[in-house]
Amino acid sequence: MLIGEKQKTKNQNKLNSSSKKLYIQSYGCAMNFSDSEVVASILEKEGYVTTQNSDDANLILINTCSIREKAEQTVRRRIQTFKKKKEKKSNLVIGILGCMAERLKSKFLEEEKLVDLVIGPDAYRDLPKLLKETEEGRKAVNVILSKEETYADINPVRLNSNGVTAFVSIMRGCDNMCSFCVVPFTRGRERSRNPKSILKEVANLNDLGYKEVTLLGQNVDSYLWFGGGAKKDFLKLAGDQSVETTDFSNLLDLIAIANPKVRIRFSTSNPQDMKDSVLKTIAKHPNICNYIHLPVQSGSSKVLELMNRGHTREWYLDRIKAINKYIPECGLSSDFITGFCNETEEDHQLTLSLMETVKYNFSYMFHYSERPNTFAQRKLRDNVPEKVKKRRLQEIIDAQQKHSLYRNQLCLGRNYEVLIEGISKKSNTKYFGRTTQNTVVVFEKQNSKIGEFVNVKINNCSSATLIGEII
Ligand code: SAH
Ligand code: F3S
Predict the structure, then answer these.
(1) pLDDT band for position 183 (50/70/90)?
(2) Closest ligand relative to 66 C-alpha
(3) Longest dimension (CA), the chain
(4) Protein residue whose Cα sits closest to atom 7 of ligand 2
(5) Helices (H), 259-344
(6) Are 29 and 5 in contact (CB under 8 A)?
(7) What pTM was computed for the model?
(8) What is the dihedral of CA 344, 366, 268, 30, to 10 degrees?
(9) Is the peptide bond between 344 and the residue preceding it cis, with omega within 30 degrees of 0?
């Protein structure tokens, strides 16, 4: 799941007279936003308070994304905007977190002279020590990936929170090795978090009045708790049947039963790991949302094989069939890449026809961006011209818009339960919230409050939004 481009931290903590002020900005996926909350928690213990204003800060951290070249360019441009601040304030420390830190390691310090600190996604506990090194005038780096680290015991500081919805990380890393993807290199091996600590975090959010949690992982359906460590190492020893395990459907069950008033979402599911047991669990619990983000990337089995996706078009469509069988009217979304290596016009048409079959509620769509050291970069040719990649992208964007409108029009005249998340961007007299299917609904406030569940009758819609009234 991707989130807009950036997030500034909110003054969650009362800004006191502390001289230690942290400005943290996150780019990329939800996991980065969630990790920034772990980082803020680690630094809070060191006396840092967060600020929304980078001018006030003496520590600026940027949590970076490497997924496409463009994402990296955005981060580099952002670093340059701090140049003047750094010249004026000699003690200002600039640190790079996340996937770019991991990918470029100490090379980052050579390429971006303004940067003092480079810290990979598994090394955040080391931040206090690394900050001491920078205080002594040295540059500091830790990009060691772990087979254990899940930050299970850290209670994240909720940044930029609406007090209604929150992210909860349930696993880290990815073992899938899709040939285009940099994530397995930047986030390391797949490991799951102890279900007890997940349950504790959700219970805590529940106590604080949160109404919805989104469970996060690169591949949530692959979640497996067997006592800790890398999943691959466990699978090698899988002969040992005596070990008690918790899989994703067990975890969903536990969370849903323990928190009947909390809505549960999760992201991201991978088609090859999505089992019927998970679908049955979703169907069983009214508080697990009827929405699945199931990225397909391409509608052509040939391209899927080149992508090393571990599923075919047919397998994927069978999963969609299963979803529709167990969870009627389930909201569906996907990710697509156009112009991957060797993608022909015929392959592209297969993507369009798959979209036509599924008619997703919405999708995240990209043209292929070659990433250093991935299998595709090393072994395949990036041979679809830029212009063609972009034209195909526009075609799938157009198709998606048509399907989003189609899906939204099906809602006209019907009533939906909506969790109110905030004030509508376009009108102060209106709230926005989401249905269980994850569709955004806008409606007049009347006497309702943020954080309440209300029933809304849908009167109108665009391709992006449902418009209705509280009944
Ligand atoms: N499993 C992850 C996927 C992370 S990447 C999750 O939690 O969502 C998100 C999406 O970015 C991918 O599904 C893919 O569509 C896109 N993507 C990844 N690598 C890419 C690349 N090299 N070029 C273009 N898009 C890419
Ligand atoms: Fe990337 Fe594929 Fe994992 S897209 S995050 S390698 S499932």
Answers:
(1) very high
(2) 1
(3) 65
(4) 176
(5) 276-284, 301-306, 313-326
(6) no
(7) 0.94
(8) 160
(9) no
β-strand pairing of 140-142 with 117-119: parallel
Q: Is 400 helix (H, G, I), strand (E, B) or coil?
A: helix
Other C-beta atoms closer than 10 Å to the C-beta of 380 total 17
| Ligand approaching nearest to the C-alpha of 220 | 1
Ligand nearest to the backbone CA of 184: 2
Domains delineated in the chain: 10-142 (3.40.50.12160), 165-409 (3.80.30.20), 415-470 (2.40.50.140)
- Contact between 277 and 250 (Cβ < 8 Å): no
5 — pLDDT class (breaks 50, 70, 90): very low
Q: Do residues 6 and 33 make contact, with C-beta atoms less than 8 angstroms apart?
A: no
| Residue range 211-248, pLDDT digits in tens | 999 999 999 999 999 999 999 888 887 656 678 899 99
The pair of structure tokens assigned to 419 is 């969790």
H or E element at residue 204: helix 195-207
Q: Which of 183, 255, 179, 190 is nearest to 225 (CA)?
A: 190
Residue nearest atom 21 in ligand 1 by C-alpha distance: 369
The finding on whether 31 has its CB within 6 A of some atom of ligand 2 is no
Please provide the average confidence, as pLDDT, over all residues in the chain: 94
Pocket of ligand 1, beta carbon within 6 A: 1, 29, 67-68, 180-181, 183, 218-219, 268, 295, 297, 335, 337, 366, 368-369, 371
25-76 residue pLDDT tens: 999 999 999 999 999 999 999 999 999 999 999 999 999 999 999 999 999 9
Q: How far apart are CA 445 and CA 464, in angstroms?
A: 20
Contact 370, 382 (CB under 8 A): yes
Q: Whose CA is nearest to atom 12 of ligand 1?
A: 335
